[in-house]
Fold this protein.
Amino acid sequence: LRQFSLQYTMSSRSISKVTVIGAGLMGSGIAQVSAQSGYQVTLVDLNEQLLGKAVQSIQTSLERVAKKQLKDRPEEAKQLVSKTMANLATSQSAADAAKSADLVVEAVVENLELKRSLYRQLDSTAPAGCLFASNTSSLGIAELAEAVPNRKPTFGGLHFFNPVPVMRLVEAAFNQLLEFSRSLGKSAVPCKDTPGFIVNRLLVPYLTEAVRMLERGDATAEDIDTAMRLGAGHPMGPIELADYVGLDTTKFIMDGWHAKFPNVELFKPSDMLNKLVEEGRLGRKTGLGFYKWDSKGSKL
Ligand code: 3HC
């Protein structure tokens, strides 16, 4: 009973200040959509260079969103950008940025120990009742929350998709995070705490199966992509999407699952994927993966 009432009291804290840790593609996107929806957002990363790059990409993305949503109203479009940017601050200290947060969203690299050590830092300063959420693409939420046992009642999964400002779905493994996702204008699905939730558990093995098909020489990358775009109605084929998501990200997710479930055939590593990652060909973000990408992120 005590635990129930504690959970009830804690989860009733309303959200106005959001701290996002990690200013990569996902973190920047989460910060952007939160600031756009009127939350006071602090985006955190290790240095000014990373933060500067993130703020620049948020500005560019917002201008695209504003141009699309407010096509014939340039003044309002300008206001949307300036209002959103005014809701956004940056910090190089996770502990400082968590001090007055109602919700902390962690979007750092997919490394269990790194994430756990970050939660311990956040725990030392975040107010009681502050919600902790992880944008993990493959780890279990209970496993992550072990680092901060006292936060378990207010710890959940909150998984976005790239590009965050465009993709309509959020997966949430915690009720209050469903409400938050909806307040961002996203469709939200509740998920059990299972690795990869719904989308990545299906999507990442599918991407790797497409790489294996290429590896076996059954079809070219272009033909696999055309087939899935035109034959299954997907906006991008799986080889292009693997480049888009990042070949390192795809590999890390599969490696983690393979280590955990060594007998599952679908999670076995792909030599071709390993080799590309070893060579630093990580896909869209490095300009080269299975395909070539220009500096603006368009496939050549
Ligand atoms: N910010 C703002 N707007 C953006 C944007 C961004 N970062 N990226 C694209 N857009 C907008 C464009 O401005 C464009 O608007 P318009 O309709 O007014 O022209 C619209 O989105 C479509 O973009 P484009 O015309 O450039 O290109 P496409 O029509 O090919 O769409 C795409 C691009 C939305 C990326 C589409 O190809 C797509 O949906 N691809 C699949 C993406 C996907 O599956 N993502 C999930 C990956 S898995 C994941 O993220 C989970 C992780 O844990 C691994």
Remarks:
- The domain at 2-190 is CATH 3.40.50.720 (Rossmann fold).
- Strands lie at 17-21, 40-44, 88-91, 103-106, 131-134, 155-159, 169-172, 187-190.
